[in-house]
């Protein structure tokens, strides 16, 4: 699909994906994993990376061979036809009413922790966040990528500062013996930690904007995943070293409390600002991905429609405006009805795994060789995750069924398998 500006390089791609994967999780999940599995969480991160690796390989192969702003919906279209693609696209968009308001709540929470903002102030922060994303979206994807490379650098610098000031070294870390690990806590920790690697499907929408997608997209995806995994493991090691988890302490307060302990109370606002920026980066890539999906779906059917028009910088600004408007309405509704954060997140989680499953099934049909083998393994892992999530996938299943029945059917298209 033509139109979008192809300017992303390898470093920009790594910055986009790593910040997408880190997002809100880098401040909360290491403490949650330590609380569940204690020092066994040091082993859980390498295990999780190994488990996610087949899914990442399949996504990398699909993005390499079929770069398109439609992302997951495009892959599904080639494998199973346009009707399933439209269902997949709208299923991904159904995250907006629940997932984005949750992320905005988490992001504004860092401002509350740092500056003690009240309810009205937090709403202004959420509105300002959406406005900043809109302003950034007026430019091409390269501008977002450059910003997120800086944010990724700040996150890494904060973790490195904690290790340096806290005297943590690789030799000082005490790995528990594998024979002492219990399966149940490890599985529970892995189930929580998996959400740190939700973001691959959003990154797929940017494949068409790489200067050399066949070379740089798969490299950026795999390197970004490893960078994020390394940061998560380093945060877990710090949380364990300072015993900053469990009890009455909120998981998201774990790293800021370590920063205060090492650098003083005045450093709290620094940690909170970095936490907010991490949330902003995750929100930015998701809204930009949603916009590209809306644009691509509209462009294929009605190329002259308002939503299908690009800005002067060749970015889908009109589609982004529509997505942000929906996010604003959803956030105001969530605030009005006093919906709890966990209630919002629980509905979004099942959708992501469901979309992963559809992409892996597409890879089984479209890819050949080792990439196809990875797709089969990824399919099995996604099914296992859906079983582990249980009733929490009900929102995704109901939305999928409704979309399948409601959306109109069009002539089927097919894709050719590639190696």
Automatic annotation (TrEMBL):
Query: Per the record's keyword annotation, is Oxidoreductase included, yes or no?
Result: no
Domain of life the protein comes from: Bacteria
Give the record's membrane topology: Multi-pass membrane protein
Which cellular components does GO assign to this protein?
A: plasma membrane
Q: Which UniProt keywords apply?
A: Cell membrane, Membrane, Transmembrane, Transmembrane helix
Localisation per UniProt entry: Cell membrane
- Chain segments annotated as transmembrane: 43-66, 87-107, 119-137, 149-166, 186-208, 220-246, 266-286, 319-338, 344-364, 376-407
Q: Does the keyword Membrane apply?
A: yes
Molecular function per GO = transmembrane transporter activity
What InterPro entries does UniProt report for this protein, alphabetically? AA/rel_permease1, APC_superfamily
- Name this protein carries in UniProt: L-methionine/branched-chain amino acid transporter
Q: Which species is this UniProt entry from? A: Limnobaculum xujianqingii
Name the gene.
yjeH
């Amino acid at each position: 699909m033509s139109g979008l500006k192809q300017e992303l390089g390898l470093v920009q791609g790594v910055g986009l994906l790593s910040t997408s994967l880190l997002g809100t999780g880098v401040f909360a999940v290491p403490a949650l994993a330590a609380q569940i599995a204690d020092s066994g969480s040091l082993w859980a991160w390498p295990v999780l990376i190994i488990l996610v690796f087949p899914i990442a390989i399949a996504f990398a192969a699909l993005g390499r061979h079929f770069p398109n702003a439609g992302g997951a919906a495009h892959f599904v279209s080639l494998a199973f036809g346009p009707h399933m693609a439209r269902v997949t696209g709208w299923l991904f968009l159904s995250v907006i009413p629940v997932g984005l308001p949750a992320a905005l709540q988490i992001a504004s929470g860092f401002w509350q922790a740092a500056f003690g903002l009240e309810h009205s102030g937090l709403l202004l922060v959420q509105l300002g966040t959406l406005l900043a994303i809109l302003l950034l979206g007026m430019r091409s994807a390269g501008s977002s990528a450059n910003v997120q490379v800086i944010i990724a650098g700040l996150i890494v610098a904060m973790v490195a500062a904690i290790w340096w000031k806290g005297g943590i070294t690789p030799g000082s870390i005490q790995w528990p013996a594998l024979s002492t690990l219990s399966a149940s806590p490890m599985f529970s920790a892995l189930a929580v930690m998996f959400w740190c690697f939700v973001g691959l499907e959003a990154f797929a929408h940017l494949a068409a904007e790489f200067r050399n997608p066949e070379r740089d997209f798969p490299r950026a995806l795999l390197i970004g995943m490893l960078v994020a995994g390394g940061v998560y493991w380093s945060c877990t090691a710090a949380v364990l070293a300072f015993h900053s988890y469990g009890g009455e302490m909120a998981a998201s307060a774990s790293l800021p409390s370590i920063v205060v302990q090492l650098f003083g109370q005045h450093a709290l606002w620094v940690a909170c600002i970095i936490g907010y920026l991490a949330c902003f980066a995750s929100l930015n890539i998701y809204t930009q991905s949603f916009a590209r999906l809306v644009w691509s779906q509209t462009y294929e059917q009605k190329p002259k429609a308002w939503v299908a028009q690009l800005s002067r910088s060749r970015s889908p600004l009109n589609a982004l405006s529509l997505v942000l408007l929906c996010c604003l309405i959803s956030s105001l509704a969530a605030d009005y009805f006093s919906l709890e954060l966990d209630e919002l997140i629980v509905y979004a989680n099942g959708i992501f795994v469901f979309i992963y499953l559809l992409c892996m099934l597409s890879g089984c049909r479209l890819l050949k060789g080792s990439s196809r083998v990875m797709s089969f393994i990824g399919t099995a892992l996604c099914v296992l995750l859906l079983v582990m999530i249980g009733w929490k996938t009900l929102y995704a299943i109901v939305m999928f069924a409704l979309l399948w029945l409601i959306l109109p059917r069009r002539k089927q298209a097919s894709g050719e398998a590639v190696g």
